[in-house]
Amino acid sequence: MSIPSAVKSTPIGGRQQLVDYLAAGEKPREAWRIGTEHEKFGFRTDDLAPPTFEGERGIRALLEGIASRYGWDIAREGETPVALTRGMANITLEPAGQLELSGAPLETIHQTCCEVNSHLEEVRSVADAMGLGFLGMGFQPKWRRDQMPWMPKGRYKIMREYMPKVGSLGLDMMTRTCTVQVNLDFSSEADMVKKFRTSLALQPVATALFADSPFTDGRPNGYLSYRSHVWEDTDADRTGMLDFVFADGFGYERYVDYILGVPMYFSYQDGRYIDLAGQDFRRFMDGTLAALPGTRATMKDWADHLTTAFPEVRLKQYLEMRGADGGPWNRLCALPALWVGLLYDDEALDAAWDLVKDFTMAERHALRDGVPRQALKLPFRGGTVRDLAREVLKIAAHGLRRRARLNRNGADESIFLEPLIEIVEADQTPAERKLELFHGAWGGSVDPVFREFAY
User: Fold this and answer.
1) Any idea what DSSP says for residue 71?
2) Residue 407: how many CA atoms within 13 Å on its side-chain side?
3) What is the pLDDT of residues 257-266, one digit of tens each?
């Protein structure tokens, strides 16, 4: 839900207002939608280098080309184009120019997959003429951090200066990672809590299934999802498995208290970003920030602040599933299929919760800490994560079949789980497949990945 302009500028009167904002996301089942987001790395097809913002083959020219050819509106920061909008969908820029589609809220995975495909076709038709390509992986396989460009967005400048103060991999998170995520609705506080707990406990399974970031600086890095590892040393104040979600009494209020404890990055005032990195949002509510004396936080500031926490599952006015590496187009459709199958069917949600409800805190952390390196092969409860993933996919498939949202050929949404079922049956993640090629047919080079796995 977007904030009405009259509300955006309303100073926050107290904590209850923040709780009410989250609760306003509640929707009846018939209004539940699926919002899919994915990021991808751009590269120049001749030398594989990431495109800069300016220049004939730059990201700015790409955005302007897509806008003029396909009817997108350009959003600007000052005079600088930084995003495109069309209807309920947006194309935005990550810090190093990774291109992100934030899709419209849609009713079915069939519609989601059509949206993804048409987006990739639009991007490709403009990028091809510029000698640019795009790659879906979890981590930049070839280029060093210092070789990555930076996009001219005010919030990224603030984050770039703050990240090294709170972790060693935050700049890598910003410039060298890509993800696919899905945003899903809830009907009540109790429904939100059950979905949050279930999806948070199972997020490592998604990380394992989608593991596709085995290279750093052109070499194997010892991980299968290095992107997931990067989050472990980005900023402990705003990442992780959120143990309090599983505690008795969890709900909107407890999440608000968590977000209030997350240090700020910025406030957007009069068309520019004010650096408030490390500051306390509570003091901003009171109007006692030294950088903005007398200025009190508004509901727009609260909405912005909610986006600056990066846990494995994030609550806004919907729930965001954040555990997966980016990948090829069919896995961009598989990720929403997985979570819709688990969370949008009552029987499936019950079964998924039954699967995880007796996980201990230690087990949840062992899964989160272990899957970046071992993925499906991580030992768990006398078996492996592969066994857990197989059970999860069965539950999701049953949930999608019961939803019975059919395409024109009469197929339900469970068809989109096929790439994940293949991964489990082969017991080989996308990362392991690429490592096999690296040590074999690719002759120890990552360069072929840009040709063989580009969109």
Assistant:
1) T
2) 13
3) 999 999 999 9
